[in-house]
Write a structure and sequence with these properties.
Blueprint: E1 2-12, E2 15-26, E3 31-34, H1 41-48, E4 56-63, E5 66-67, E6 77-80, H2 92-99, H3 111-118, H4 133-145, E7 151-155, H5 163-176, E8 181-186, E9 199-202
Parallel strand pairs: 3-8, 3-9, 6-7, 7-8
Antiparallel strand pairs: 1-2, 1-4, 4-5
Helix pairs in contact: 2-3, 4-5
């Protein structure tokens, strides 16, 4: 997977969040987008995901040197973020089955194994509306990480996770994210990205041009 950002800028009304971002994301590396709260790192990640439109600039996507139509980008991307809604009326088992109707699961896994990998076996028949914020974040992370897509986007992945759950997240990344392009938006918490991201991008560097 290869993503080229050319002169990317985003503004709301007359205020530029960032401007002049020229970056290449390539699958031989993994990336962390850093910045303080409100700096625009989540906005940039959503632009990469195709969910937000930049105010200026262009983005090009390729997989194995073949251009990806922006309308088909969703097939290539998995994303987890604490602000993304889950279907609260679904049970955990129903959520897993529903998700993998639209995204392929990592090769060699079965949907019945996912609840075990989440370490939420006792809650498999419970509706998500009764889950704690930490349990919901486990669900978001596992569904994204265990989806067989070349691009994995994680926005502040350890939000609402305790120490044991952070270790669980790190192990899941280690086991199921090889040969993928991973981009993490992080509030400079190294345990979110340090073990697997080798390129750092600070959104604050693109404020001076705004």
């Amino acid at each position: 997977m290869h993503i080229q950002l050319t002169n990317i800028g985003k503004r709301y009304n007359y205020e530029w969040i960032f401007k002049g971002i020229h970056v290449e994301f390539a699958s031989e590396n993994n990336y962390a987008i850093l910045g303080s709260n409100g700096s625009g790192k989540s906005t940039l990640l959503q632009i990469v995901a195709g969910n937000f439109i930049p105010s200026e600039g262009a983005i090009n996507y390729k997989e194995e040197d073949i251009p990806i139509d922006p309308e088909d980008l969703y097939k290539h991307v998995s994303i987890a973020a604490p602000y993304l809604d889950l279907f609260d009326e679904f049970t955990l088992n129903e959520s897993i089955e529903f998700h993998f109707k639209f995204k392929p699961i990592i090769e060699g896994l079965y949907t019945k194994q996912v609840v075990t990998l989440m370490q939420l076996e006792k809650a498999k028949d419970k509706q998500l509306k009764y889950f704690s914020s930490g349990m919901k974040q486990r669900v978001r992370l596992a569904l994204a990480i265990l989806s067989n897509t070349p691009l994995l986007l994680l926005d502040e992945p350890t939000s609402n996770l305790d120490k044991n759950a952070i270790a669980w997240y790190q192990q899941l990344i280690h086991d199921y994210s090889k040969n993928r392009l991973i981009i993490v938006a992080s509030n400079q918490l190294e345990y979110e990205y340090a073990s697997f991201c080798n390129v750092l991008l600070n959104v604050e560097d693109y404020k001076k041009k705004a």
